[in-house]
Amino acid sequence: LFMFFWLSTPSSDSAFFYYLTGELDFQPEFLGRVRLAGSLASLAGVWIYQTYLREARISSVLRWTCLLTLPPALMQLSLITHLNRDLGIPDTWFTLGDDVVLATLGQIGFMPTLVLAAQLCPPGVEGTLFALLMSLYNGAGIIGSETGALLTKALGVSETEFGNLALLVSICSLTSLLPLPFLGVLDDVVPVNVP
Asked: Which of 46, 12, 52, 35 is nearest to 100 (CA)?
């Protein structure tokens, strides 16, 4: 329930992509490098979870991941307002670092749900449960994207108009905290020690 609500919160990704390509003039080659760095960061997130967090309470990992993703998400405001330039950080490095941190934390948040699903899954239905879990994630992601698109339109942000982009990013980032009360359902869940 928590993951569904967390993943279905509004997303400003599409509007932010237009900002990166339109306003900051990032080219496909650089965006591909950002994507590669994000994928490698996801692998780092798996390693961090496996090495340091696999015996931690699932609700604690999810709570801290949710809270720790807020500052990097809000750091996009620095890129929008060009504060990063005032600090001497180029737009490219700032974007790359932001994406790496968010991808790492995203994977750390994803791993406990897979562990929980593996613990709860009866033998013989592993594939079905995994397909159900992925459908839930994809459905929630679509809801988040569509809600973000509606919010983007309501705020008048477009591929050429970025006047309210900072407000959009702020709203989308802060709404990611709304699902935190649903974590109470997982407070008693402790991961099984796997060798």
From this structure: 35
Which pLDDT score is estimated for 58?
86
Nearest to 58 by CA among 7, 10, 12, 110: 110
For the residues of 72-120, what is the DSSP string, one character each?
HHHHHHHHHHTHHHHTT--HHHHHHHHHHHHHHHHHHHHHHHHHHHHHH
Confidence grade of residue 102 (pLDDT, cut at 50, 70, 90): very high
CA 117 to chain centre: 20
Comparing 94-98, 117-121, 132-136, the range with the smallest average pLDDT is 117-121
Quote the Cα angle for 160-165-169, to 5°: 145
pLDDT of amino acid 195: 47
φ, ψ dihedrals at 189, nearest 5°: -85, 120
Question: Which two structure tokens, joined as six digits, stand for 31?
Answer: 């965006």
* pLDDT score at 122: 87
pLDDT band at 182 (very low <50, low <70, confident <90, very high): confident
Distance CA 2, CA 29 (A): 36
| Dmax (CA) of the chain | 57
What is the model's pLDDT at position 190?
66
d(CA 136, CA 29): 32
Query: At a CB cut-off of 8 Å and minimum separation 6, what does 129 contact?
Result: 117, 120, 121
pTM (2 d.p.)? 0.88
